[in-house]
Amino acid sequence: MFQASSITIFLFILTILLLGACSNPIPVETELLTGKWELLEATRSGQKSKSLEGAYLKFLEDSLQTNMLGDTTMYKYTLEQNVLHQYSDPEIQYLIEDINQDSLVMTSKIMKIDFTFLFLKARK
After folding, report:
1. Residue 18, in any domain of the structure
2. Each residue of 86-113: pLDDT tens digit?
3. Strands, DSSP E only, in the chain?
4. What digits encode the pLDDT tens for the residues 31-56?
5. What is the domain count for the chain?
6. Contact of 39 with 119, CB cutoff 8 Å
7. What is the distance between the alpha carbons of residues 48 and 42, in angstroms, rounded to a whole number?
8. Number of C-beta neighbours around residue 20 at 10 A
């Protein structure tokens, strides 16, 4: 009897977790993005990439400063729920997977290559 109830509880918790993972994206507040984010780690097609070392994003009131594409450049951007549109050439869309006051995780497909980025908020 104890085993059956333990399994039932486990399945109930698993169901709740899975339903939570499948929920609609929560809109990201622009205020949470504001400031400078330094790249801690990037993966390209699932492999760690060292070519982006030293990369950063700096979100200002209505623009984004970054060196992700090479030179330090300012771009306009928009945020729609958890999708960040960077108006560069070509335009890049980032999916914000997770964000809090200290870390930012985004994914993107750039030139048909899958990327994952982990940023940490820069200390003032």
Report:
1. no
2. 999 889 999 999 999 999 999 999 889 9
3. 35-44, 47-48, 56-59, 63-66, 73-80, 83-86, 92-99, 103-110, 113-121
4. 889 999 999 999 999 999 888 999 99
5. 1
6. yes
7. 6
8. 8
pLDDT value, residue 58: 97
What Rg, from alpha-carbon coordinates, does the chain have? 18
- Could you tell me the CA-to-CA distances from 51 to 29, 61, 75 in Å, in that order? 30, 28, 21
- For the cut 90, the answer to whether the pLDDT of residue 19 exceeds it is no
Euclidean distance between the first and the last CA atom of the chain, given in angstroms as a whole number: 57
CATH number of the domain where residue 67 is located: 2.40.128.280
Residue with tokens 């622009």: 30
Strands 92-99 and 83-86: antiparallel
